[in-house]
Amino acid sequence: MGVFASTDDPVSTGHEQVVFCQDKQSGLKAIIGIYSTALGPALGGTRFYPYASEDDALADVLDLSRGMAYKNALAGLDLGGGKAVIWGDPEQIKSEALLRAYGRFVESLAGRYYTACDVGTYVADMDVIARETRYVTGRSVEHGGAGDSSILTAWGVFQGMRAAAEHVWGTPSLRGRRVGVAGLGKVGKYLTGHLIEDGAEVVATDVNPKALAWVRANHPQVTLVDDAAALVAADIDVYAPCALGGALNDDTVPALRAKVVTGAANNQLAHPGVEKLLADRGILYTPDYVVNAGGVIQVADEIEGFNFDRAKLRATRIFDTTREILHLADAEGVPPAVAADRLAERRMAEVGRLRTIHLR
Ligand SMILES: NC(=O)c1ccc[n+]([C@@H]2O[C@H](COP(=O)([O-])OP(=O)(O)OC[C@H]3O[C@@H](n4cnc5c(N)ncnc54)[C@H](O)[C@@H]3O)[C@@H](O)[C@H]2O)c1
């Protein structure tokens, strides 16, 4: 067992705080990672996953919490970046006692970290955690929660895509463009609706027959192709990965015919360097964490008392942020992924510095 003896060293990764939590009776083993509170309390979901080792769990929480700091900074939120992992199989060990024990550890951080849903945790779990802590969002509608975050996620992705269209074709519209949507799940379905409304032609794929049936019934004008490989090779203007991570890799980028990539999936770049492969092929990639921030914007709004119109307005600003990133990328001669990181770091440094002005 390697608590604080891991190969991933939080000191060298720049994290503010990493907390190991254990409640032996309920089986809880959790790690809360706080990367930065420069902009405010750290916000990020709790991933409940059967990691192969403690090192894997730690590596994931360090990586994810850092990512949240960048995402929240560019979403314009007054929130820092954090994330938590619960180590174990949720199917086997998730219980009221375990979730409430976890909630008490979140509470012990006195508001430095707000939790929410992620892989393996759901709205109902947040309601249980909330019985022990105030610092939880992403709750059920009955408990003041905002409900389905994919609505604003899809809206934000659409805004990012409009900004990319303006950059490449001169108008912030997808009218007359062929857009390939890979993954017709919660986000992909809403995105397809926005695209059709805007006058785009949608080509799509999914591995789930139910998702395909939904599209056939609701948007019969959508052209369906066999799989993601067929979509990548299709004659499309925009590629929208809305399924799993790693969609942009050494195989797909050379085959891609689209000029723009904008989608909801997290971690679309399979490895560092793929952003350069895209740039070298003249493909404009809008960083995933910028355009898919609608979901976190929604759960962040819930902390204030959810107001859909206010949250939608903020998600609409993903258009302006994407536009700014694309201009910065051109001005500094770097891929948009690098420009986005620079802009996030700038906001954390500039706005975070204001905390040094003493108030009382
Ligand atoms: N829901 C949100 O608010 C939100 C917010 C930010 C990021 N994201 C990310 O966006 C992506 C989509 O999220 P979602 O909520 O729509 O998930 P989802 O599970 O509802 O939908 C994913 C869809 O992709 C399909 N799929 C899986 N593998 C595929 C493959 N190889 N080829 C084609 N289709 C495949 C699934 O069948 C499913 O219909 C995920 O990567 C998620 O992490 C979602």
UniProtKB/TrEMBL annotation:
Keywords, alphabetical: NAD, Nucleotide-binding, Oxidoreductase
Pfam families: ELFV_dehydrog, ELFV_dehydrog_N
Entry binding sites for NAD(+): G183, L184, G185, K186, V187, G188
Presence of keyword Transferase: no
GO biological process: amino acid metabolic process
List of catalytic residues: K83
One example GO MF annotation: oxidoreductase activity, acting on the CH-NH2 group of donors, NAD or NADP as acceptor
Family matches, as PROSITE patterns: GLFV_DEHYDROGENASE
Domain Glutamate/phenylalanine/leucine/valine/L-tryptophan dehydrogenase C-terminal: 147-356
InterPro entries (UniProt xref): Aminoacid_DH-like_N_sf, Glu/Leu/Phe/Val/Trp_DH, Glu/Leu/Phe/Val/Trp_DH_C, Glu/Leu/Phe/Val/Trp_DH_dimer, Glu/Leu/Phe/Val_DH_AS, Glu/Phe/Leu/Val/Trp_DH_bac/arc, NAD(P)-bd_dom_sf
CDD domains found in the cross-reference section: NAD_bind_Leu_Phe_Val_DH (cd01075)
UniProt entry tagged with the keyword Signal: no
Family: Belongs to the Glu/Leu/Phe/Val dehydrogenases family.
Annotated PANTHER family: LEUCINE DEHYDROGENASE, VALINE DEHYDROGENASE
Protein name: Glu/Leu/Phe/Val dehydrogenase
